[in-house]
Amino acid sequence: MLDKNPTFIRALLTSLFSLAIYQLSGRGRGGNVWVSPTDYLQFPLLLRALFTIFPASRLVFIRYLFGIAVMNACRHLLGKAEEKVRPKQPDDIYTVLDTFDQLGRQKSQELKKVGDILVTTSFVNNEVDVVIERNLELEKVTACIMASFETIWTRFLANHDSPTPFLDQYLNCWLHSWVTTSNPPVSTIRIVGMTANFGLL
Q1: Burial of 76 by CB count in 10 Å (0-12 exposed, 13-18 middle, 19+ buried)?
Q2: What are the pLDDT digits (tens) for 71-86?
Q3: What's the CATH number of domain 6-190, 3.40.50.920, 3.40.50.1820, 3.40.50.360, 3.30.930.10?
Q4: What separation in angstroms does the CA of 6 have from each of 14, 66, 165?
Q5: Membrane-spanning regions, if any (predicted)?
Q6: Any bridge partners for residue 42, and if so which?
Q7: pTM to 2 decimals?
């Protein structure tokens, strides 16, 4: 409803939050679609910002800021277990599961996707509308995510949309550090961070 109706979006006040019980036309990368399972947390959040205080080159960081809000919510609700919940660039949320052998010894770690963050934008005159769609288990985490994101978003705008205060926190918990290329010649590349403009690796 929000993603495909820019005229409707312009008539709404921001920041608008809508909690959905069912999602019948979910959209992901590459045109993937799905019908949501029951008992999942899913909602859109509509934000609006002026380009005079929020240039287009910084829009990419909204998904990372929201990822931090999810990590903060997990820390609040789960304690040390939050270290098992990690962002995977650009928009996935994973949990790290420990597997054990028959004697109870840790055998390996397995990654399982538990959610994603989809950010869409529409531009009108000198403003940008941003819609964040979230799918995540554990319904009780809603209030924690929104409270955390409100604090982060306010600080982000107050710092003239500079991602610097947040990048270290995001990079310390993400799943990327090394990437092996798939096309010849095969090589291993170390990812050391992201640029302050456009969020390039």
Answers
A1: middle
A2: 788 777 766 555 677 7
A3: 3.30.930.10
A4: 14, 22, 32
A5: 7-25, 45-66
A6: 20, 135
A7: 0.71
